[in-house]
Amino acid sequence: MASVVDVDTSAAGSSSSSGGGDNASSSRIDLHVPSNLLIVPAAAAVVGFALGMRREGGKARLRFLAENAHRQPTTVQGWYFYTKTRNYRVFFAGLRGGSKYALGLGTAAALFVAVDEGVGYLRERLLDPAITREDARTPPNPRREGWRKGPVHWEDGAIAGSTLAVVTALVYKLPNPLLLRALIMGFTLGGVTSALQIGQDKISAMKDEEDRQKAAAEAAEAAAAAVPAPAAAAPVDSETAAPPPTPTLVDAAEPAEPPAPAPAQGESSSWLGRVGSWAGLGKA
Asked: Where are the transmembrane segments (predicted)?
């Protein structure tokens, strides 16, 4: 009896622990990060670092030449330290400029991707209730993780680009002509970015369909090869088979006798009937 109680107690404890685990799993917060938010800002940061290092390094080189134009070295050792100092200044200025450009361009790209995904998410929630619908024109890419569940629309990128242009103009306090130019450029480039994603999704869908058809054809060929072929008729041995009869010379020389005419209906086949027919006494 004690063992039964112990088993029940352990079962109750396990059920309570599992219930606690279910509650913990249900209260867990999942943070879904789109794949573009990891790829696009990183690529933009790399491009920004390269641009910043080139521009700021060139500026530092020209600045050093201008600062030391009136005191050029005259010895070999002087030229060595002159060149060494110039290279150090150019390198560190390039690192500072590259980091600055990488941070700015990466942040702008992250803001663009976040607004793009957010606009698509709101569009599906507010304007399109069927978020899982299949659109033949722009099929969703199953390999792309994002806040959107359906296909990409070009309006998402256009709105995101316009938002980024307005934010940039307000931060840097651009005049109205530059603000209008930035707005047009952001709208155009954002729409082009979404159009490229749509094209990528279409190409991916076509490739998946081709792979699916190829797999189906290979499966059909394998199934046809697995079916046993019908048994073929046994071949006739030419040595054991009886040869056809060959005609003799007598058979070839003597013509075949024509068959005797059948007696007419009602006519007697006796000798009296034959005599009567010869004499013309038969039926006309």
From this structure: 33-53, 178-198
CA 123 distance to own-chain centroid:
25
Domain that holds residue 133: 33-218
Task: Give pTM, 2 decimals.
Answer: 0.60
Rg of the Cα trace of the chain? 49
CA distances from 168 to 53, 161, 163, 264, 281 (A): 22, 11, 9, 123, 136
The b/e string for 19-58 (b: 16+ C-beta within 10 A; e otherwise) is eeeeeeeeeeeeeeebebbeebbeebbeebbeebbeebbe
Number of domains into which the chain is organized: 1
Tokens 């990128």, residue located:
157
Let me know if residue 157 belongs to a domain. Answer: yes
In this structure, is residue 66 part of a structural domain?
A: yes
Tokens for 266, please give them: 């009602």
Within a domain: 202: yes
**Mean pLDDT (10-residue bins), the chain, 284 residues:** 43 46 55 80 94 94 91 90 93 94 92 89 72 51 72 86 90 89 91 87 83 87 77 56 55 52 50 58 48
